[in-house]
Amino acid sequence: MLALAPDATDVAMALFSGIFNIGIGAGALVGNQVSLHWSMSMIGYVGAVPAFAALIWSIIIFRRWPVTLEEQTQ
Asked: Cα 29 to chain center, whole Å?
C-alpha cells in the first residue's frame, strides 16, 4: 500500500495503528467475557477460533490470487 501512494504514508500508518488498537480492544473485550462466563483456561481455546479463521481465510486468498516474486518487485 505504501508503494502505491508514497505521499500518503502518514495516513496509512494512522490507519494501521487504528486497526491494531481495535484488535487489542476486541481481544481484551472477548477475554473479559470469556473469563466472566466460562473460565480462564478457556481463553486460549476461544482465542484460537479467530486465529484459525484467519489462517483459513489467508490460505483461500493466497490460493485464489497467487503473487509471484516477479510481480512483487515491479
From this structure: 16
Cα distance between the two ends of the chain: 13
pTM score: 0.65
C-alpha cell at 15: 490507519
The whole-angstrom separation of Cα 17 and Cα 7 is: 18
Non-local (6+) Cβ contacts of 31 within 8 A are 43, 46, 47
Instruction: Identify the DSSP state of 38.
Output: S
Q: Which tens digit of pLDDT belongs to each residue from 22-45?
A: 999 999 999 999 999 999 999 999
